[in-house]
Amino acid sequence: MRVGIIGAGPVGTGMGILLSRRGYTITGVASRTRASAQRAAHRLACPVFTEPAALARLVEVVLITTTDRAIGPVTLAIARQGGFHPGQTVIHMSGSLTTAVLEPAREAGARVLSLHPLQSCADADRAVTNLPGSVFSLEGDAEALTLGRQLVNDLGGEYFIIKPEAKPLYHAAACVASNYLVSLVDLSYRLMQAAGMEPAMVVRALAPLIEGTWGNIKEKGTTLALTGPIARGDGETIADHLQAMAVKAPELDEIYRALGRYTIEVAVRKGSIEAHQAAGLEAILAPPGGR
To answer: What's the predicted TM-score (pTM) here?
Structure first.
C-alpha cells in the first residue's frame, strides 16, 4: 500500500518509519519547507515532493501530519488541484479535530479518517519508540475505519471509536495527562528550588517519587493511590504550605490552591476524610478574597 506523507514533523516522520518497517511503501513526503521535507525523506529513503497534490495523486493513503491549523487549508489546496480520488483514504492525526476538516477530500470521493495516538512525540525517534503499543482514537467513514484498525494492529496498539462531538473532551483529557503533567512537575521543581535545593539535584530527588506515584496509580488507580496531607485531612500542614509560599513563592499560590481543592474531592471518593474535614480543607484552600 502506497503512502504519501504531508507534514514532516515528528509524528509524520515517525509514522513513516514505522509503516515502512511494516511493509508499507512510503512514496514520498511533502512539507511546508523543503529543508524539513528533505530531513524526513532522508530518514524514509523516499523522494521529496514540492507539491502535495502531486504526491497525493500517486498514493492509496494520504497521511496529513501538519499542524492542526494547517490541516484544513492543505486539504482544500490538494482538492482544488485534483489530488484526491475515489478509493483513496485520507488520514489526519489531530486529537482535537474531526474528519469534518477533511470534507474536501470526501467530496472528491476519498474516504476520510482521524487517527490519533494517545502519546507524546517530542521528536521522530521518540515517535518511533512511543507509538507502537499506544491507544489510538478512530473517527471517520466506515471503510476508512477498517484501514484505521489495520494500521493500529500493525503498530501493536489498541483503538477505540470516538464520536465527533466527544473529541474536545477527549483532547482536553490528553492535554491534562501530557501537557499539564509537565506543568505540574515544573511547579514541583520550582517549589523545591524555593526551598533551597540545587536545581541539578531536584530532578534526581523527585524522579523516584514521581515514578513511585505512577506505579501506585497503575496498580491501585488514582483514588486509592492518593496519599499526603489532604488524604489525611491535615489542614494545619496545608496552612503551613500556604504561609511559606506567601513568603517564598507567592506567584504559585493560586495554582496550589486550585489543585488542592480538586484533591479534596479525590480524598472524599477515597473515603479517607469525613465531610467536616473536607469543609475545613475547602476553607483553608479557598481563593484569597473569595475570588
So the answer is: 0.87
